[in-house]
Amino acid sequence: MGEVILTMKDIDKSFPGVHALDHVNFEVRRGEVHALMGENGAGKSTLMKVLTGIYTKDSGTITYEGKDIEFHNTREAQDAGVVIVHQELNMLGHLTVAQNIFIGREFKKGIKIDDKKMNEEAKKLFDRLHIDIDPSETMANLTVGKQQMCEIAKAISHEAKVIIFDEPSAALTEAEIEELFKIIRDLRAQDLGIVYISHRMDEIKVITDRVTVMRDGTYVGTLITNECTKDDIINMMVGRVIYEDPKTASTVAENAPVVLKVEHLNAGRMVQDVSFELRKGEILGFSGLMGAGRTETARAIFGADPKESGDIYINGEKVTINNPQDAVKHGIGYLSEDRKRYGIVVQKTVAENSTMACLENYTKGLFIDKKAEKKVAEEYVESLATKTPSVEQLVVNLSGGNQQKVVIAKWLINDCDILIFDEPTRGIDVGAKNEIYKLMNKLASEGKSIIMISSEMTEILRMSDRIVVMCEGRKTGEVRIEEATQEVIMNMATREIG
Q1: What are phi and psi of 182, to 5 degrees?
Q2: Same domain, yes or no, for 436 and 398?
Q3: Residue 242 pLDDT class (50, 70, 90 cuts)
Q4: How far apart are CA 440 and CA 274, in angstroms?
Q5: Mean of the pLDDT values across residues 81-95?
Q6: Backbone angles phi, psi at 349, to 5 degrees
């Protein structure tokens, strides 16, 4: 690690009703990858938004390359070489790769845009990053991983000296994560300072040099990565010990009634002849590699995607589910892996989101009974321990874990007995994960039945009573938790059929 290139000292920032940053300290050196960690709502993103000019700090100093600075917008930060690669990609699918990289800074020949020059410059960036992407390819045709690489190339094009990666691996496959790490190591070798925000503890140990931890808007401390343990970091993040022991025995009685039975379900290439049962009070884990067909199976059951054939039984009775409304009517709730796209409306309040699935119950004539809506939303904020100033708060202002609780409240208020949790802890931190796990166990103990789709093996082994494994659209195995190991599941997840 080289000299300090960036120092943030005593940064303070408040919003109405929230003290988001309370005298926070942070520094980045040239040639280091510095992790910024903390639970959802700890203030990580706010700190980076203050740095890059999205928010104005209330007090404190930012020193960059030896000078006190304050950026007033992201363009100023970019021009100075401080660039953020966002978790949600900001690319325009209909434009080419090169056009996306240089948007707003196009090379011109006279009054016309010089696409040839832009392609050449984009190619130089990709060569520097050792990436094989055609600059003239339409962005929409690339995988998420390749789009992420284009975002990084765009950052480099600003002659970046400090790059902030905000949850860069959230939507990437294992192979794409390896490619990302190669690029980050190359950038580190070129003396760039890199801030790496992630909830994935295993990644932090692999790719970072130092770890700074925040909690509740305050600075907790900085550790050297190879001198600390995973537990050290977790303890600093949450202020308590969190145990991640796998479940050793099912909590479901052998004779528990079957509440959902799926027989020979077919829905395109990703759902082929899938059959399984779900019992009352059971957490049924769905495991498999990316592209195994788990989400597609869930969406077909819920009626979000059309099924070609197969039968669905609820409490022994054959039902017809052609759309999500049918599924909801039969007591099925679906928590999508993409909660912002399918689960919540972020510009509406906690109360409005909570009653969204059963609004007719809170409507009098043409008007919504706001008093009743508020009352039920407050009940579930309390029972789920959702952190929000009030039920009138916009959901966009909540942390990821608390947004997830609002989605859960929506289906509980609708009195769903069967809940499909698709990647329930994606994008949320270890403390919030623990709360979601406790909540799922509580729901199961109260008689709710849960299908949990997860790509995290530790999560599958910790939560499931029984595990269904899929590979390439087919069910390749089923195992009780007593016999489940990572090796057993992985063998099933890579098994070819026929």
Answers
A1: -60, -45
A2: yes
A3: low
A4: 25
A5: 77
A6: -80, 170
